[in-house]
Design brief:
This protein is of the alpha/beta class and about 475 residues long. About 30% of the residues lie in helices and about 25% in strands. It holds the Pfam family CBM_5_12. This is Fibronectin type-III domain-containing protein.
Amino acid sequence: MRFRRMFLALLAALAMVGAGAATTAPASATSAPSAVDQQADAAADWQPGVWYAIGARVTYNAADYECIQAHTSQTGWEPPAVPALWKPVTGGGNPGAPGTPGSPRVTATTDSSISLAWTASSGTVTGYRVYEGSANRATTSGTSATIGSLGTCTTHTYTIRAYNAAGESAGASVTGTTGGCTGGGGSKMPGAPYLYMGWGNPPAPASVMSATGVKSFTMAFILSSGGCTPAWDGQRPLTGGADAQAISAIKAAGGSVQVSFGGWQGNKLGPNCSTPQAFAGAVQQVVNAVGPAVVDFDIENTDEFENYTVQDRILNGLKIVKQNNPNVKVVVTFGTTKTGPNAHGVRLINQSKALGVPIDNYTIMPFDFGGTTMYQDTVNASEGLKTALKNAFGWSDAQAYAHMGISGMNGLSDQQELTSPATWTQIRDWAKGKGLTRLAYWAVNRDRPCPGGGVVSDCSGISQSDWEFTRITAGF
């Protein structure tokens, strides 16, 4: 949302005076306060409380693993349980045992069962055992299994090992969640374009609702008003101001709101709140004041997206937010390339899995990314997000789509990428057809015509009808 970024540059600078701007440098993915000797030719036993760099090898339960995401280990993050951190490798385990099962995946779920499948191991195979932790949940001679008698809306990580008379193979892990969830990941949110009360001649939301049928708005943006204290734009009060009045009007008209935290620039809570607990406390103040259906964390730029210390602080804070507000959906929104999330986005996804953060939806922003054909570029970026989610969680296509969202930019983007009403309709229909669960765009303020007007705050820069993009989004 760089267009909003440019307009907020002066405002952000003023907001940071006195409060201080965060200048924390991005945490290195390979630096560490301490580390064990991690020689590839002598894999040590895995231990909790140890820093493991990317490429480090360990042995756990007679199987070898290679670290694929730098981290400090802890109990519960044993290699077979956290495929986002470790991958099984050859060179250890029992001589003569089968090779590692390939491509573990969830093939179906019910409210009480999870069905798994995998490709056959190399070597002589007697059968396969499916473990949850150290407990053997199934034994089969084939390459599939169904685990039953599970709780509704519960998440389980399974490790599949081939075996023969010589012993067991290294494990291949996959995570699945049973159905029947209420108020949690996978259920669809209404289309909710961003509405920003800080610039761009903000329209009366109830009038827009009446004209378009839209039932929800994403209200932007919660920033720091100094330290770990939240405020609209870092300066307007949570209650009693223009934002609160707009939210009251939306709810009075039968609508709901999502609240967005962060964005490209400004004095954000992530760098200013010193602990996950403090961050969660700041978010809770907003939840208590606003009563949102969704909290959206727009994680961008070097101070949050590329600073892994802050990424982790936000993610761990979101665990607390979800625990305290199980019926409020938690969304993370971040930028993308034309082929999917970049390294920082993949890291965010993998780390949310490793930390056990119950994120309901991962939304990408497919604009300002060198787009040429915005429909196809958006589809390609979304398919890249799907792949990243499947790799991290072991989800099926359908499960990944059900945790995905798209947040576009109507009309002309900062880079002069053109998203017309016809293109936005194509994107909406693709998202609906694939089962995505969130659709938004930046912003209702710009959902007015001004052909040839360029990239400005109160119109789209193209020919269109008033509120045309909002009307399309309402059809999601």
